[in-house]
Amino acid sequence: MILVDTVLQRRQREGRPIRVGMVGAGFQGRGLANQIVNSTPGMELVAIANRTEAKGLRAYEEAGVAAKVVDSRAALERAVREGTPAVVADALELVGADGVDCVVDVTGAVEHGARVTLAALDAGTPVVTMNAELDATVGPELARRSARAGVVFTGADGDQPGVEVNLLRFVRGIGATPLVAGNIKGLQDPYRTPTTQAAFAERWGQDPWMVTSFADGTKISFEQAVVANAWGLTVPARGMNGWDHPGHVDGLTGRYDVEELRALGGVVDYVVGARPSPGVYVLATHDDPKQRHYLDLYKLGQGPLYSFYTPYHLCHFEVPSTVVRAVDLGDAALVAAGGPRVEVLTTAKTDLRAGTVIDGLGGYHVYGQAEDAGVAREQRLLPLGLAPGCTLAVDVPKDAVIGYEQVRVPVGRVVDELRAAQDGRSW
Questions:
Q1: Nearest 10 degrees: Cα torsion 131, 135, 141, 142
Q2: Prediction pTM value
Q3: Do 204 and 221 have their domain in common?
Q4: Looking at the domain assignment, is residue 335 inside a domain?
Q5: Which helix (H) or strand (E) holds 346?
Q6: Claim to verify: residue 204 and residue 137 sit in the same structural domain
Q7: What is the DSSP letter of 81?
Q8: CA-to-CA distance for 157 and 64, rounded, in angstroms?
Q9: Cα–chain-centroid distance for residue 340?
Q10: 3-class state of residue 64 by DSSP
Q11: Across residues 51-72, what is the average pLDDT?
C-alpha cells in the first residue's frame, strides 16, 4: 500500500476516483466488487460485464449497490456519466467505453480473456488480469503488444504470482540473488475432478471446475509459469519438485543444490503441506560476506540460501492496489519480461480415446504440468491453455503429455492467432 494509499486518498479528496470496469462476476469477481465498493475510497466500480447478467447484478447487490442492465455501449457510457452502476452482457462493449479507466479480467477463460484484453489494448485502456490461464499461454505476446501500444497489461497483486513477484522485487532490492520462487499448496492430486471437489466447492460457493484446477495441479502450473516468464526462471524438472514438506519453508534452504540452481538461472517450484500456508517463499543467495554476517545476525542463518516468505495471499483484497499501480503509476505488478520460459503441458488425467473433445481446465480429461519452454517447443507439446475444445486424433494413455500432432485444433480462435505470433518470434 506504500504510494498506492496516498494516490487513492488524493483522488478521493479531488473527487476523481479511478473508474473500474470488471469482466466476470464469479466468486473472485464478487469479492473484488465488494472490496472496491466498500473498502477502496478513491476508486469506483462503474460497470460489470458478464454473459449472465444476473450474476453481475448479484455482485453489485452483495456489495450493497443497486445496478441496472444496459444493452449497448452508448447506454453504458450514459450510465457511467450519470453515476449509475451498470451491468452489460457483452464485455467488448465495456472495454472500449468512455469513462472506464481500467479493465479487470476476472474470468479465467482463455479465449474470452484474449478477446477482452486485445480490445482493451486497442482502446488504450490498462488491463489488470487475474487470468493466469491466459497469461501463461500468451502472456509474452500480450506483454509485447501492450508495450508497443504504451498501455499497461499486468497480473494482479494478492494472488500468489503477484505476491511472489513483489517478494522477488524486495529480495533483489536488498542486494540478494533470488534462485527459487516458491508456492505453498495444501493438496496436490492430479486425478481430482469436479465430482470429487463438488462438496468443497459447494461449501465455499465456488465453481467445482475452478476448485479442481487448484487440486489437480493445473492452477499452480499456470501461476508458476507466469512467475517464471516474468522473472526469467525455469523449472527444476517437469512438473516442478512439488515436495511434501510438513515443516516451515525456512527448512527448504537445505534441500536444494545451490550450484544447480545457479546453473539453471533460478527456478519456480512449490511444496505441499508447508508452513506458513497459503503463502509464498523466495530462496536467495548473497555474494557479499559482510552482508552475510548481518543476515546471520538478523536470524536468517549462515546461507548459502536464505529464506524469505510472505505468510498469506489475499487475492481480491489487493487487486485495487494493482489498478492504482497500472493507472496512476504505470507500474506492472507482474508481466512477462520476454519470450516464454515455462509452458504448461496438457497431460491426460485418464485414458482418453480418439475423438474425445478435451473439456475445460479443471475438468475430467487433462491436468497441467510446468515444463521448460525450450523442451516444450522442441517436442511440439500442446500448451494446456489451448487444449479445451481440441479433438484427439489418437488414443492417449493416462499421464501421457499431448502434442500438437495428436489433436485437431478448433478454427477461428483468437488465442491460437496470438500463440502463433508468439511462437514465431525469436525473442
A1: 30
A2: 0.97
A3: yes
A4: no
A5: strand 342-348
A6: no
A7: H
A8: 25
A9: 15
A10: coil
A11: 97
Same domain, 203 and 284: yes
Same domain? 35 vs 116: yes
- Cα–Cα distances in angstroms (integers) from residue 24 to residues 34, 220, 222, 280, 378, in the given order: 14, 21, 19, 26, 36
What's the CATH code of the domain at 346?
A: 3.90.1210.10
How many domains, in total, are found in the chain? 3
Residue at 172 is within a domain:
yes
Report which of 271, 281, 328 is spatially closest to residue 168, judged by C-alpha positions: 281
The pLDDT value recorded for residue 154 is 98
pLDDT at residue 1, as a whole number? 57
Examine the domain organization and report whether 63 and 110 are in the same domain.
yes
Q: Give the residue-averaged pLDDT of 50-72.
A: 97
Q: Got the DSSP string for 410-426? A: PSS-HHHHHHHHHHT--
Grouping H, G, I as helix, E, B as strand and the rest as coil, residue 227 is helix
What residue numbers bound the domain in which 396 lies? 342-419
Question: What string of DSSP letters covers 270-336?
Answer: EEES-BSTT-EEEEEE---HHHHHHHHHTTS-S-SSEEEEES---GGGGHHHHHHHHHTS---SS--
- Residue 20, domain member (yes or no): yes
What is the DSSP pairing of strand 153-155 with strand 68-70? unpaired
* Residue found under cell 487433462: 366
CB 392 within 8 A of CB 354: yes
Taken as a whole, the chain contains a residue count of 427
Strand locations in 174-266 (E): 177-185, 243-244
Report yes or no: 328 and 7 within 8 Å, Cβ to Cβ: yes
Alpha-carbon distance 394 to 374, whole Å? Answer: 25
Residues 32 and 17 in one domain: yes
User: How far is the CA of 381 from the CAs of 54, 343, 369, 410, in angstroms?
Assistant: 39, 9, 11, 17
Name the grid cell of 385.
491453455
Give the E-state strand segments of 170-244 in sequence order.
177-185, 243-244
Check which CATH number belongs to the domain holding 9 and give it: 3.40.50.720
Q: Is the C-alpha dihedral spanning 419, 421, 423, 427 positive or negative?
A: negative
CA distance 71 to 316: 27
Share of the chain above pLDDT 70, in %: 100
Average pLDDT for the chain: 97
* 290 located within any domain: yes
For residue 82, the surrounding DSSP H or E stretch is helix 73-82
378 three-state secondary structure: helix
Distance CA 165, CA 174 (A): 14
Same domain, 108 and 183: no
31 and 136 assigned to the same domain: yes
